[in-house]
Design a protein that fits this description.
Layout: H1 6-37, H2 42-68, H3 78-95, H4 106-132, H5 134-137, H6 141-174, H7 186-214, H8 229-238, H9 240-270, H10 276-290, H11 294-298, H12 304-328, H13 333-373, H14 378-407, H15 422-433, H16 435-450, H17 455-469
Helix pairs in contact: 1-3, 1-4, 1-6, 1-7, 1-9, 2-4, 2-14, 3-4, 3-7, 4-14, 6-7, 6-10, 6-13, 9-13, 9-14, 9-15, 9-16, 10-13, 12-13, 12-16, 13-14, 13-17, 14-15
Length: 470
């Protein structure tokens, strides 16, 4: 088994920066942009998100099967990474640059719905082949761990750029002097997010080009089987470990997305100062950077299974600390922000390591699927990663927007006026501090009881698959 050169690992991983710039803007700031700049109703978003995911349930496995059947001089994955990055960049720019309609009008609602669905489709075009490519050039377990760690490190860098610098960049481009993000007018928000999204879109394409130019596809298994949605469902249904993975990963990922999605509302509505979010996110980004050390260190004396359980435990402890600070520590949010950030740093170490481990697990699940079913189905299997992430976001959105609707959280005045709503404050605080650790605990239980690709059985699967490819 050939080792992957470090420069190729780094070149591959760089592509994740651009993907997560787009991903971070969509999942962490789109809600704030839509509700506060475009005056989109939370009820509309509560309906839109599940409908978009229904389509993803058809589109994602279809795209995975199309990638599996692709044969070009560039390979089967790299052409789609470039194509998907370009299309996703265009849609991201359009989504954050909806102009020519008055906020809250039917035209805006239609455009939001169209670009919302198109973003998911174009993200799939790039995301599935990018992460599916790992088993084709990293066939040894520790090599896969390192490739996944490097890619997830760059992924965390992209997320960190978005979470730390978005408020600063949006304010700068808004052109409204001597103000902050939470004081911007709807027009200022639209202008600021519009220009920032264009920069992120250009970066997405540039980093995708670097990744494609740096990577070689070697251990590629060709497939000539035409796509059948019925067969795709059968492959997914008969791979019991894929179904188990999708369940526990979706639940744990939803816990993290809850924090990234609700934190802006928490610091704005409960804390009264959106600038506090940057301090909070900065400490979280430090934790994400530190998480890159977890797997290389644990690899020396722990199995992947034990490392993953440690990651979930670390994240749960960090979130439990946030809950204790949020509910028990005296003072207002401004007084607590550093303590909250330190706990989020601990949680982010676990979350970052968790994401790396999940990528490695999918590579193992591809091998397991071939071992059990006799067919590789690599891209189809990896397409479930993007789908489960979207489902996790949808679950987070349903919880969040349902709470907004139930508590009558008022977006009508934008961010220039604080609206006192005790019920909304309580709901936002609960979603910020209680929902994430509960979801991580549930995920941990399912993983421990149901996931079986580890130890001697995992080595048996790897040996069988490697022998089949010789």
């Amino acid at each position: 088994m050939k080792k992957v050169p470090l420069r190729e690992k780094i070149g591959y991983g760089v592509g994740a920066i651009g993907l997560d710039l787009s991903y971070g803007l969509f999942y962490s700031y789109l809600s704030l942009y839509l509700t506060n700049a475009l005056k989109i109703s939370p009820l509309f978003l509560l309906i839109l998100a599940p409908l978009a995911r229904i389509w993803d349930g058809v589109n994602d496995p279809m795209m995975g099967s199309i990638v599996d059947r692709t044969h070009t001089k560039m390979g089967k994955y790299r052409p789609w990474i470039l194509t998907g990055a370009c299309f996703n960049a265009v849609v991201l720019s359009l989504l954050f640059n909806i102009a020519g309609f008055n906020a809250g009008t039917i035209g805006v609602y239609v455009l939001v719905a169209v670009f919302y669905v198109l973003w998911g489709m174009t993200n799939t075009l790039a995301d599935i082949p990018f992460w599916s490519m790992i088993p084709t050039f990293a066939t040894e377990e520790k090599d896969r761990n390192l490739v996944s760690t490097i890619a997830r490190t760059f992924s965390g860098l992209g997320q960190g750029i978005v979470s730390i610098f978005t408020s600063i960049i949006v304010v700068y481009f808004a052109g409204e002097a001597n103000t902050e993000l939470d004081k911007l007018s709807p027009a200022g928000l639209s202008k600021g997010f519009g220009k920032w999204s264009i920069i992120a879109s250009v970066a997405l394409v540039v980093f995708a080009c670097i990744s494609v130019a740096s990577t070689k596809e070697t251990a590629v298994v060709k497939s000539e089987e035409k796509f059948s949605f019925r067969k795709a469902l059968q492959v997914i249904r008969h791979n019991d470990q894929l179904l188990t993975f999708m369940l526990f990963a979706m639940i744990s990922n939803c816990g993290y997305y809850m924090t990234s999605g609700i934190s802006s509302y928490y610091f704005l509505q409960v804390g009264g100062d959106l600038k506090l979010q940057s301090k909070f996110n900065l400490l979280g980004s430090v934790g994400s950077i530190l998480s890159i050390l977890v797997i290389p260190i644990c690899d020396k004396f722990m199995s992947n299974r034990s490392t993953y359980r440690l990651s979930l435990t670390t994240a749960t402890v960090g979130y439990a600390g946030m809950a204790a600070v949020g509910y028990l520590l005296p003072g207002d949010v401004r007084d607590k922000v550093i303590a909250l950030g330190v706990c989020f740093l601990i949680a982010s170490i676990g979350i970052g390591s968790m994401f790396v481990n999940q990528t490695v697990m999918l590579a193992d699940i591809v091998d397991y699927g071939e071992y059990k079913l006799g067919k590789r189905n690599q891209s189809l299997t990896f397409s479930m990663k993007g789908f489960l992430q979207k489902m996790a976001y949808t679950l987070q959105s349903i919880i969040m927007y349902s709470a907004f609707v139930a508590t009558k959280y008022d977006f009508s005045k934008g961010m220039n006026e604080t609206v006192v709503n005790r019920q909304a404050d309580a709901a936002i605080t609960f979603m910020m501090f209680i929902v994430p650790p509960i979801m991580l605990i549930i995920s941990h239980i399912i993983f421990t009881k149901k996931y079986k690709i580890f130890g001697d059985f995992k080595q048996e699967v790897l040996r069988a698959v490697n022998e089949a490819h010789q």
